[in-house]
From TrEMBL:
Any one Pfam family match given in the protein's UniProt record, by short name: ROK
Record-linked PANTHER family: D-ALLOSE KINASE-RELATED, ROK (REPRESSOR, ORF, KINASE) FAMILY
InterPro entries named among the record's database cross-references: ATPase_NBD, ROK, ROK_cs
Organism expressing this protein natively: Aquirufa aurantiipilula
Name the record gives this protein: ROK family protein
Entry superkingdom: Bacteria
Length: 305
C-alpha cells in the first residue's frame, strides 16, 4: 500500500478493536476489525488476542505496522512504566507498553481511553465542527464513570503522573459517597449515571433508571426525581465551571450516557454561569460528540498523527 497509515487499537473490557486510517485523510478508514478481549482469561491471553488481531489486519493490508497507538482503560504510570487505575484489573501493575512492543515488534504509544476520546473529537469530530482552530479542547466522559481528556494544540496532555484530565476524581462534595479510587465525594460519585440513580433510590426508596428519573422530573410527578435532576444540573455547573476556570478551553465535548441528557446543554449550561469566575458570562461551546463508539479507536490511531 502506498498510503502512509495510522494504526489504532482500542483495548476494551469486552472487545479489542483495530482501525487503520489514511494519514493524509484520517477520516478515511482503511480497515476496521475487532476481536473478543476474553479478559477473564488473564493478561497473557489479552496480549495474545491483540497479536491475533494485528496479524489479521496485517494480512488484509499486506504490510506490518511500524507503530500502533492504543486506547487503554486506566493509564500508564510514566514513573514506573506500569498500568494503573484499569477496570480490566488484570492490566494493573503490568508493563503493557513494553510487552506490546515486544510481542508486536513495533513502536507503541498508550493513552487512556478518555484521552483518546478527547483527541479524536478534537481532530476528527465535534471540535472541528465548532472551532477547527481550537487551541485547547477538553473531552468529558459522563457515563458509568466520569473521566476526561485535555488536548492542547492537537496533543494529549498526559501529565507528570499520567493523570492529566482526570477531572472525574476532583472532590465535588465534602461529605459525599465513597469512590472506588479511595476518596469520597469525587465528581464521579455525584454525577455519573449510577451515582444519580443511587441518590434517587436513597431518597425515594425506589429503583429507577436515569432516563425514567428524567421523565418523572419533566412530568413534575415525582419530587425526588426533580431533586435528583436539580442535583445533576447544579453539580454539573460546579464541576464544569472549575474546568473553565483552570483551562478556559475553546470547546468542551461531553460524551458518555449522561452526556446525552439535553438538559445539561440548557439548564446545566446556565448553571455554569452561576459558578464561573467571569461575571456570569460564558461563551464556551459545550457540545455533544460526533464520533460515537469510534472515538476511542480513532483517537488511538491519531496518537501518531
Ligand atoms: Zn474517585
Amino acid at each position: 500500500m502506498n498510503k502512509e497509515l495510522l494504526w489504532g487499537i482500542d483495548l476494551g473490557g469486552t472487545k479489542i478493536e483495530c482501525a487503520v486510517l489514511d494519514k493524509q485523510n484520517p477520516s478515511q478508514v482503511v480497515v476496521r476489525e475487532r476481536i473478543d478481549t476474553e479478559s477473564a482469561k488473564g493478561y497473557d491471553h489479552i496480549i495474545a488476542q491483540i497479536k491475533v488481531l494485528v496479524d489479521r489486519v496485517t494480512g488484509i493490508i499486506g504490510e506490518k505496522p511500524k507503530a500502533i497507538g492504543f486506547a487503554t482503560p486506566g493509564v500508564l504510570n510514566p514513573l514506573t512504566n506500569t498500568m494503573k487505575n484499569c477496570n480490566t484489573v488484570c492490566l494493573n501493575g503490568q508493563a503493557l507498553a513494553t510487552d506490546l512492543a515486544n510481542t508486536l515488534g513495533c513502536e507503541v504509544k498508550l493513552a487512556n481511553d478518555a484521552n483518546c476520546f478527547a483527541l479524536a473529537e478534537t481532530l476528527l469530530g465535534a471540535v472541528q465542527d465548532v472551532n477547527p482552530n481550537a487551541e485547547v479542547a477538553f473531552g468529558v466522559i459522563m457515563g458509568t464513570g466520569v473521566g476526561g481528556g485535555l488536548v492542547v494544540h492537537g496533543k494529549i496532555i498526559n501529565g507528570l503522573h499520567g493523570i492529566g484530565g482526570e477531572w472525574g476524581h476532583n472532590i465535588l462534595e465534602d461529605d459525599g459517597d465513597a469512590c472506588y479510587c479511595g476518596k469520597s465525594g469525587c465528581v464521579e460519585t455525584v454525577i455519573s449515571g449510577p451515582a444519580l440513580e443511587k441518590y434517587y433510590e436513597k431518597h425515594s426508596g425506589k429503583k429507577m433508571k436515569l432516563k425514567e428519573i428524567l421523565q418523572a422530573a419533566k412530568d413534575h410527578s415525582d419530587a425526588d426525581a426533580e431533586a435528583t435532576v436539580e442535583r445533576m444540573v447544579d453539580y454539573f455547573g460546579r464541576a464544569i465551571s472549575t474546568l473553565i476556570n483552570v483551562l478556559d478551553p475553546d470547546v468542551i465535548v461531553i460524551g458518555g450516557g449522561v452526556g446525552n441528557v439535553d438538559l445539561l446543554y440548557s439548564e446545566g449550561y446556565e448553571r455554569i454561569k452561576k459558578y464561573i469566575f467571569n461575571s456570569r458570562e460564558v461563551h464556551t461551546p459545550v457540545v455533544k460528540p460526533k464520533l460515537g463508539d469510534s472515538a476511542g479507536v480513532f483517537g488511538a490511531a491519531m496518537l501518531y498523527s
